[in-house]
Amino acid sequence: MRRIAVVPGSFDPVTLGHLDVIERAAGLFDELHVLVVPNPGKTALLPISRRVELLQKSIRDAGIAGNIVVASWSMGLLVDYCLEVGASVLIKGIRSQVDVAYETPMAIVNRNLAAVETVFLLPDPAHAHVSSSLVRQVAALGGDIAPYVPEAVAEFLQKAPV
Ligand code: PNS
Q1: CA–centroid distance, residue 60 to ligand 1 (Å)
Q2: Is 18 a catalytic residue?
Q3: Is 73 a residue whose pLDDT tops 80?
Q4: Can 129 be counted among the known catalytic residues?
Q5: 3-class DSSP assignment, residue 122
Q6: Residue 162: is its pLDDT beyond 90?
């Protein structure tokens, strides 16, 4: 049986912390879907199609594209996508207790909705302070985001400042 997992997120934009979790997850499953999902609770920086493009390029540049599919989903529940592609596991990166508190209710609801289990992965502590919202803020105020994001993202945001 092929073991298929989904890493969902806003990825607005993808950070080095995301990429670290994606690489670890890709090593644990036969097929990994990195899924861009709009989060209505957050003010968006990039359109969904651009986030997908930057994820694809960052994953290719990192040399980990082998078993990874990048897609987006805005047609309903996250677990509907999981059922559609035959994934039984969601992956979430956990940087701190704050992430555990944020992710736990969603994990329980997703299990209740469709028996999809959530696996928490720990990124390298070097990325513990990195978040997309911080990157959005630094970029908006003209600061250097290169230490926090893949090269493709830094290049794109430098060319098209926000
Ligand atoms: O990167 P983010 O913004 O923390 O990602 C949050 C995301 C997209 C994973 C979350 O908003 C989500 O799961 N959205 C899908 C909507 C859904 O299925 N909700 C019901 C179960 S929690």
Answers
A1: 25
A2: yes
A3: yes
A4: no
A5: coil
A6: no
- Residue in the block written with tokens 């994001």: 149
Confirm whether 111 is a catalytic residue. no
Please name the residues in contact with 110: beta carbons below 8 A apart, sequence gap of 6 or more: 78, 79, 90, 116, 118
Q: Give the pLDDT confidence score for residue 114 in this predicted structure.
A: 98
Taking residue 133's Cβ as centre, other Cβ atoms within 10 Å add up to 12
Q: 157, 119, 129: which is closest to 17 by C-alpha?
A: 129
pLDDT digits (tens, 9 = 90+) for 83-118: 999 999 999 999 999 999 999 999 999 999 999 999
First-residue to last-residue Cα distance in the chain: 45
Q: For ligand 1, is residue 71 a contact (CB within 6 Å)?
A: no
Active site residue 159: no
Closest atom of ligand 1 relative to the 80 alpha carbon: 18
Closest atom of ligand 1 relative to the 10 alpha carbon: 1
Q: Looking at 42, 49, 60, 129, which residue is catalytic?
A: 42
| Residue 38 Cα to ligand 1 middle (Å) | 8
Q: What is the mean pLDDT of the chain?
A: 96
Report how far ligand 1's centroid is from the alpha carbon of 154 (Å). Answer: 25
- The SS3 call for residue 144 is coil
Q: What span, in angstroms and rounded, lies between the C-alpha atoms of 7 and 25?
A: 8
Structure token pair of residue 9: 């997120």
Tell me what pLDDT residue 161 has: 62
